[in-house]
Amino acid sequence: MRVPISWLREFVDVPADATPEDVHAALVRVGLEEEDIHTFEITGPVVVGQVISAEPEPQSNGKTINWCQVDVGEAEPRGIVCGAHNFGPGDKVVVSLPGAVLPGPFPISARKTYGHVSDGMIASARELGLGDEHSGILRLADLGLDPAPGTDAIALLGLDDAAVEVNVTPDRGYAFSIRGIAREYSNSTGAAFRDPLLDPALVEAAAARRAATGYPVTLADDAPVRGRPGCSVFTAGVVRGVDGSVPTPPWMVARLLLAGIRSISLIVDISNYVMLELGQPSHAYDLAKVSGGLVVRRATEGERLTTLDGKERILSAEDLVVADESVPVGLAGVMGGADTEISDTTTDVLVEAAIWDPVTISRSVRRHKLPSEAAKRYERGVDPAASSAAAARVMALIAELAGGTIDAQGYYLDESVPPPVIELPEGFAQSITGVAYSADEITGSLTAIGAAVESTATGWSVTPPTWRPDLTDRWTLTEEVARIVGYDRVPSELPVAPPGRGLSRSQRLRRSAAGALAAGGLTEVLSYPFVSEQSNDWFGAPEAGPVPAMKLANPIDPDAAWMRTSLIPGLIATARRNLSRGLTDLALFELGTVFRPEPGVQYGSDALPAGDSLPSEEVLGALRSSIPPQPWHVAALFVGDAVRKQPGQAAVASGLADALGVAHQLGTVLSSPVTVEAGHHQAMHPGRTAVLRAGGRVVGYAGELLPALALELDLPRVVAVVELDLDVLVDLGSTEISAAPIASFPAATQDLTLVVSESVPAGELVSLIVEGAGELLEHVTLIDDYRGTGIPDGSKALTFAMRFRATDRTLTAAEATEAKNAAVALAASRVGATLRE
Questions:
Q1: Which residues are registered as beta bridge partners of 422?
Q2: TRNA-binding domain: from which residue to which, for each copy (predicted)?
Q3: 400 C-beta neighbours (distance < 10 Å), count
């Protein structure tokens, strides 16, 4: 909200020497955030001049200039060159003398041009910052002004004013007006506040509006939102015999511009001026273009309305419109219609000021993508008591500035609900803020914001003012007491943190998993949970076919309308983005939830609870059951080189081994060892895919993407991925982790080569060796896989390095050999393994 300081002074006593910074500081003390300071950026000397003569002089370039003699209130007239032709001798204009600086900045100096020394510049409205009109010189007679030559034009046109801009929070819609800001300045400084709605002349005019009858208005809203009518207050009145071509006075233009609204035409400007002044939007119709009376109703589905911005709107049955006897003439509370727009030929004006339902207005604004200054105020709540006063103020200004007569005909209806009485117990404010407020401070602060306060046996009964719909309970009243008395009174006390890190076991282990992967050189990323249906079908299940998934009702991107069932699509999107920017070596991981609806279960709920009350446990339970399971997963992706080429070191490409390394690393960190088996996944290379198990359960897959799929996704041929169910790993992990003691006895090492069928997985053979060798076996690893000469067809020779150690003695070679032979015997009995000779 931009607030011209001269306008603010009309309603509150701002000291004459107060700077915009002082005003900002005062408003910040009562919770309004400062934004900016706005001025016209113009400095003098800029004066009124009267044209004595204007001699046209054609130039060689085809242009004709005027060599003017202008009286600027000095002993001698000034010679000025001007290229405009919409003025002549006798006209009074605005002259920028040498030394002046116009908005731009555009410094003015005496300079030689077209064979003359131009001693200043005759200015247009655009050059003065008063608007976009640049068709010619600003003639003061067009503004109804006749000042003497030499008069300070900056003060005359209101260009010496400044405006402070503050950020208004959504719950304080009353501050979108000079009236509201003036009250806040008074609350901050104690300066005398003069409520414009209490001005005797306006009180009398508002009473006349409420008593006016005869103009036909029908409220026919047959689809109220949550039982609330779309329109609760409606005021209408007529001004006849106006001159629609009269220009807006410069003081009003200047104030509107400082407030951030451009001047359009006098009658429209008056409506905007009163909206800024009182916070109540209004609308003016050309009465001659309205057929019959007005009807407030819901639009019919598909009905059309061309709004003032020239765009045709296709209306919804939820839109509230103001219509005449045949068609809509305005989108209620948002924007008027072009068919009844005010023009220079308008002679009779119908003025409307109403109170519209905030929810209805907000939905129409978003439906039509049509924000407006009026809608911004209606969405936050407008004072219902200001409707008749605002209409009266608009009509009075039209009659004063555009001529005409206020007609006795009109309409008024008030069905607004009075503010509820709130009980504020004694001591409640102190219990919330920790400040021992006195009774005078509580009643004084609540009275200052406009509330009616009565003492009771237990505290106070408070009736909020009509312009504060945000005050609904004792807590919001306490906020006002704290704000008006001063936030500096609220003590700063840090709460005592409970012992421990305050994390659950699963949270702690998830953080450990992320920390381990990051420490291992992977980069954590966060991706959007919205993916395409095809991505879910590829990665949501190991077998081909449709995967149960949740589809969004209102997706931001129609191509990504499904909730992810896997983290891999997000990693692929991140990799593609980085590859397109030249980053070719990537090791990425993500921890996040996936959405796994159970087949045949219907999710979602249309019965959302109201946002103004705490939902019951039953309602919360129903909402939880309407959401599909969302387990935590962890996934990683590798592209490019794991080790870059460097002197003495060849590049090492990343691949399946890196993906399996992530699985083993997570199994170690979470104390839930992961075993690897050859497996199948529809999106992965059939010969380079592994099934990951923990505790006998499948917890994920690792592998390299199908080359054809990688090509389709614009990725390199080798892309290694791994994804595990983190929730399962956390559940399976041991809660007690003990460190292995450092061995004090030497180890005995032996190699073992077994010949088995090619169908026997190496991982299964490792498990048999560990089981057969017993507790003396400390470590075993596969070091060679040979298939060729000397090995029967369909078989393979697997060589394992084995390390044996005892905790209480030095092993002999015979003991190590005995343990190895036991492993061979078990492998032979289970899978037909034989020792290679």
A1: 462
A2: 40-154
A3: 10
The pair of structure tokens assigned to 798 is: 């697997």
Is residue 613 domain-resident?
Answer: no
Q: What's the pLDDT score for residue 129?
A: 83
Is residue 341 within 8 Å of residue 308, measured between CB atoms? yes
Measured between alpha carbons, how far is 557 from 532 in angstroms, rounded to an integer?
Answer: 10
Residue at 438 is within a domain? yes
pLDDT at 580: 94
Cβ atoms 804, 749 nearer than 8 A: yes
**Domain shared by 55 and 183, yes or no:** no
Bridge pairing between strands 213-214 and 405-414: parallel
CB 6 within 8 A of CB 158: yes
Same domain, 708 and 759: no
Q: Do 595 and 561 sit in the same domain of this protein?
A: yes
741 in any annotated domain: no
DSSP lists the bridge partners of residue 820 as none
Is 470 annotated in a binding site? The answer is yes
Query: In this predicted structure, what is the pLDDT of residue 320?
Result: 94
Work out the number of other CB atoms within 10 angstroms of the CB of residue 99: 14
Q: Which of 442, 458, 489 delimits the end of a domain?
A: 489
> Using CA atoms, how far apart are residues 364 and 342, in angstroms rounded to an integer?
23
What lies within 8 Å, CB to CB, of 507 at 6+ separation is none
User: CA–CA separation, 373 vs 110, rounded Å?
Assistant: 43
726 and 756 within one domain = no
Task: Note whether 268 and 336 are same-domain residues.
Answer: yes
Tally of structural domains, the chain = 6
Same domain, 453 and 349: no
Name residues whose C-beta falls within 8 Å of residue 346's C-beta, 6 or more positions apart in sequence: 242, 244, 267, 286, 288
Q: How far is CA 162 from the centre of its chain?
A: 30
**What's the CA gap between 770 and 784, in Å, rounded?**
18
204 belongs to an annotated ligand binding site: no
For the record, the structure tokens of 659 come out as: 């993906």
* C-alpha to C-alpha distance for 202 and 395, rounded to whole angstroms: 11
User: What CATH number is given to the structural domain containing 808?
Assistant: 3.30.70.380
Answer yes or no: is 739 within a domain.
no
CATH number for 573: 3.30.930.10
Structure-block tokens of residue 78: 């000034």
What is the C-alpha separation between 181 and 299, in angstroms, rounded?
36
Taken as a whole, the chain contains a residue count of 837
- Any idea what the CATH number is for the domain that residue 367 is in? 3.50.40.10
Q: Are 285 and 350 a contacting pair, CB within 8 Å?
A: yes
Range of the domain at 817: 748-835
- The answer to whether 236 touches 217, Cβ cutoff 8 Å, is yes
Amino acid of residue 62: G
Residues 168 and 204 in one domain: no
Closest Cα to residue 216, out of 300, 333, 324, 299?
324
Annotated binding residue 559: no
**CA 543 to CA 551: how far, in whole Å?**
21
In the block, residue with structure tokens 């508002």? 206
Listed as ranges, residues in the chain with pLDDT below 50 are: none
Q: What is the CATH number of the domain that holds 180?
A: 3.30.56.10
Mark whether 593 and 655 lie in a shared domain.
yes
Cα(665)–Cα(271) distance, integer angstroms: 70
- Give CA–CA dist 200/387, Å, rounded: 16
Structure tokens at 622: 């129903």
Task: Name the nearest CA neighbour of 352 among 285, 291, 408.
Answer: 285
Rg (CA), the chain: 40
Tokens of 480: 């006002």
